[in-house]
Design a protein that fits this description.
Radius of gyration: 19 Å
Largest sheet: 5 strands, antiparallel
Distance between the termini: 54 Å
Order of helices and strands: EHEHEEEHHHHHHEEHEEEEEHHHH
Strand order of the largest sheet: 4-5-8-6-7
Helix content: 25-40%
Shape: globular
Number of helices: 13
Number of strands: 12
Length: 289
């Protein structure tokens, strides 16, 4: 590991000042579950390391002005234990309880997970389904962009060297909106995402699909929306039989995304089971199952 100067700011203002000064050669550490490994292995060789883990103002869950706002330093354990997440955001809860090991969940943050922009990242898929935005701050001001715009592929997020991701936010789900999420891994725990499916449905007064978002994770260079599936869901009655009638389209979407890669056989079959679990979660949230 190359020697570096260590900084531990206690406020966002202090962190942004450090980023402005040292942006040419610095690394930001939150939970450290990814960056510390990269430092040890020499993948990153910064002259300055800015540890933001002590900035308590970036750790919160709140609903404000019709938006759910999550601080970038919220750990997966913090979200797992938060009453608001448990009661109002079941898909996010389902996501965070299956991230890595307890040690990873205790340290890993949603901000770090989003900025890491891994193909197999847990939270970006479900955040995209919720229609999330990220808030980026620097000494020059603030930028807000959708997570779809922000994540451009493995390790390629649209954050500038002097910026800090401070918040993930999305519209607070109403009583006629539900999100399901299911992840497939190679084993029950400590598993990296092999395939993730997340589905958002807004219903009409007579229990039909008014609007839908379908996101597939770990089949493309970033979480991928499937417009054809979204259109196929619209107008369907909210019954298990009707929703599961779209399952062959999930297989088609995976086949089209990963073509002839070795994982195609496993994923194009597994996606049906994952989608079925999402539909079950959504019907349960609507009290229809």
């Amino acid at each position: 590991m190359k020697p570096f100067t260590y900084h531990a700011p206690r406020s966002v203002e202090e962190a942004l000042s450090l980023l402005e000064q040292h942006q040419a050669s610095c690394a930001v550490v939150a939970g450290g579950t990814d960056v510390v490994i990269e430092l040890n292995e020499g993948v990153k060789r910064p002259e300055h390391v800015i540890d933001i883990s002590k900035i308590s103002e970036l750790r919160y869950v709140k609903e404000e002005d019709g938006l759910v706002k999550l601080g970038a330093l919220d750990t997966f354990t913090f979200l797992e234990r938060h009453p608001y997440v448990q009661e109002h955001l079941p898909a996010l809860y389902e996501t965070v309880i299956h991230v890595g090991s307890p040690q990873i969940r205790n340290l890993g943050t949603i901000g770090g997970n989003v900025v890491n922009a891994s193909v197999a990242g847990d939270s970006p898929t479900v955040f995209l389904t919720y229609g999330a935005e990220v808030v980026l701050k620097s000494t020059r001001g603030e930028r807000i962009m959708t997570i779809e715009e922000f994540n451009q592929g493995p390790g390629n997020c649209q954050i500038r060297p002097d910026e800090l991701l401070t918040e993930v936010r999305f519209p607070a789900p109403g009583k006629d909106e539900a999100v399901g999420y299911f992840k497939i891994g190679k084993r029950k725990s400590l598993a990296i995402v092999v395939l993730a499916v997340s589905v958002y449905i807004k219903r009409t007064a007579d229990n039909r699909v008014e609007d839908a978002r379908v996101i597939l994770g770990a089949v493309s260079k970033h979480p991928m929306r499937v417009p054809a599936l979204e259109e196929a869901l619209k107008g369907l009655p909210l019954t298990k039989e009707a929703l599961e009638g779209t399952l062959p389209l999930f297989t088609d979407a995976v086949q089209a995304a990963i073509a002839n890669r070795p994982s195609v056989v496993y994923k194009r079959e597994g996606v049906r089971g994952a989608a079925r679990r999402c539909f079950d979660q959504i019907l349960t949230q609507f009290g229809l199952m």
